[in-house]
Amino acid sequence: MLFAIGMLYSAARLNSFEEAIGSIVRIDVPAGVLADPLAPVSSDNGTSTRERPTVKAGETPPGPALNFLIIGTDSAVGLDDDDPAAHRDRTASVALADVIMLLRLDPGVRRASLVSVPRDVYVPIWRGGLPVREEKIASSLLVGGMEQGAPTLVETITNNFEIPIHNFVVLDFYGFEQVVDELGGVSAWFPYPVRDTGSGLNEPYGGCTLLKGQEALAFVRSRKMEGFVEGRWRRVGVWNDLERNQRQQSFMLMAMERAIDKGARSVIVRNDLIEAGAATVVLDDRLTLRTLLDLGRAFSSFRPDDLDRYVLPVIDDSVGGSSVLRLDDSADRVFDVFRGTALEPEEVRVSVVDSRGVVDEPVPPTVRLGYYGFAVDMRTAPVVARTTIRATIDSYEAAVLLGRFIQPAPVFNFGEHLDLDAGTVELRMGVDFIEFLAEQRTFEATDAVARDYLPGVLIEQASKPTPRRALQDEDSTTTTTSISTPTTTTTATLVPEGSTIITTTLSPEETTTTLALDEPKTLPPDESTTTLESAETTTTLVDESITTMAPEDGATEELAPEPDTYNLSPILDARPPAGVKC
Fold first, then answer.
1. Is 254 among the domain residues?
2. What is the pLDDT of residue 106?
């Protein structure tokens, strides 16, 4: 997870970076397990064989979109005996997948997308091209063994979710702690004291907290978090893996911000920051220095808030007395983002410009495109030779989707200042137009053509990132946690139908946490900075911290017999609110 951060920002230090990459341990991956990022381009599949545009001087062509599988294992090798994460019921070297994330990096449009796969999702485990048995997905590493655990997880994801994986990164507990410590810790913000006796999390103060390696690991592993509110330890959230996944994603953003603050974007970034990441990860044997350098250039100005974050909708189930998760049918919409096929024709408006001259056809283009689901308007214009799709870079996916229906594959024209309405792409039909395909071309084939027409990446300075997009499933039950910064809004499917949904809003002046109670509860205020009124808690920030403090060890009160009757809003984003600098 943290290596991906360094990968994006440290490539500018070519000498140190090259040495560090060369020292990384690699896993030999069997042929056919990892996807080929370069789709074949030939006239056989209907793609264009016309001359490609050339890249300008000082630029490098944008590479293909890549899906990275980020694996955090629960191996305890290397941990100190007093580390809470070292106390397990398995041998230290025997590992499960504790964190599973898919990171899609598209250098052509400067977009990054991230989704967490809950470790308890129950699926067939694939190895050697065959399904072995059904298990929780976290056990893929055990099924694959020491040498082939990561490739087994790749096969399992590819075959169950139909998502191509191009490369993977593996990090264990010790490596995670080392990288966080090398960053000097990561700043977090809690609205009240928190703990998790299972993961070892214990932050006795609310407000700003610097999480060092052990503390950061306890935070990202926390599944049963409690908050000290109104003089008692109380359950935070609904204690499920989805909340835990959200916290892991949040920590990834905080670590990115910390890395930037430490100079990770600078050409004078410290060698030890680069070397710490390289010394603690394992990579597949296909991830090249050239790929990392190209990604580093494309994303060198990427802002953490521009990361598109997704959470998979799941359903609780039980197998043999063990609690498991099943994917909801709507999970396919999230997976489409990582397949490059998130858009549907119904979401795209096409402005057709007929420049073919006089054509005798029984069905006009507006009817054909409308049949596919596109919203269409049409006009005529003077004759042109080539069929062209014009779109802004933000509408790249829409342009590729339209191009899948056109024979032969069109020329593409992407620009920031085209006179097109938002969400609209223009199809200029030229003399070379043959037909609209009854069966659309594959995304990979069309993307391979369209990507050649994207602007190149400046070798010395990357282009400005494009605005983030949001994907919302209208049929899903959602919780939205908004933090009052200009660009941060996280939407996630969190709780099953019938559960209480709570929204927490943080502002520079105050923090208001809405608590879900079974019945109205009126409590008298006191003279401290914490005031309780009915079902609402208001805590005023004092000197950029919160004065509430948990009792010392030995004086802590146990959970209420029925913790569900006082369920604090889940901490899904521990980043400081606007106006608070930790």
1. no
2. 94
> What residue type is assigned to position 118 of the chain?
P
Helix (H, G, I), strand (E, B) or coil at 506: strand
The residue range of the domain holding 426 is: 345-439
Whether the Cβ atoms of residue 100 and residue 71 lie closer than 8 Å to each other: yes
Sheet strand arrangement including 97-106: 25-27, 281-284, 167-171, 66-73, 97-106, 111-116, 308-311
SS3 label, residue 434: coil
C-alpha to C-alpha distances, 165 to 61, 157, 278, 334, nearest whole angstrom: 22, 8, 21, 15
Strands 308-311 and 388-391: unpaired
> Given this model, what pLDDT does residue 80 score?
65
User: What does the pLDDT read at residue 303?
Assistant: 87
Strongest mean pLDDT among 87-101, 327-341, 561-575: 327-341
* Span 538-550, pLDDT tens digits: 333 333 334 456 6
DSSP string, 150-210: HHHHHHHHHHHH-----EEEEE-HHHHHHHHHHTT-EEEEESS-EEETTTTEEE-EEEEEE
Question: Percentages helix, strand, coil for the chain, rounded to the nearest 5?
Answer: 25, 30, 45
Which residues, other chains included, contact 372 with Cβ-Cβ below 8 Å and sequence gap of 6+? 345, 405, 436
| Structure confidence by residue, pLDDT tens digits, 170-187 | 988 888 898 899 889 999
Residue with tokens 């990384």: 24
Question: Of 198-202, 292-296, 440-444, which gets the smallest average pLDDT?
Answer: 292-296
Residue 61 CA to residue 41 CA, distance in Å, equals: 16
Contact 495, 477 (CB under 8 A): yes
Q: Is residue 292 part of a domain?
A: yes
Instruction: Evaluate if residue 260 carries a pLDDT over 60.
Output: yes
For the cut 60, the answer to whether the pLDDT of residue 559 exceeds it is no
List strands edge to edge, sheet with 194-196: 201-203, 194-196, 226-229, 232-235
Q: What is the largest CA-CA distance in the chain?
A: 88
C-beta atoms surrounding 147 within 10 Å: 10
Q: Are residues 177 and 191 in the same domain?
A: no
User: H/E/C letters for each residue in 60-121?
Assistant: ECCCCCEEEEEEEECCCCCCCCCCHHHCCCCCCCCCCEEEEEEEEEECCCCEEEEEECCCCE
Residue 457, both tokens: 């990446």
Residues 367 and 298 in one domain: no
Q: Please state, for a pLDDT cut of 90, what percent of the chain lies above it.
A: 47
Q: Please report the pLDDT score of residue 194 as a whole number.
A: 95
Q: Same domain, yes or no, for 238 and 269?
A: no
Rounded CA separation 579/442 (Å):
48
Same domain, 427 and 362: yes
* Spatial distance between the Cα atoms of 508 and 544, rounded to a whole number of angstroms: 10
DSSP codes of every residue in 260-285:
HHTTTTSTT--HHHHHHHHHSEEEET
pTM confidence score: 0.76
- Which phi and psi (to 5°) does residue 151 adopt? -60, -35
| Amino acid letter for position 140 | S
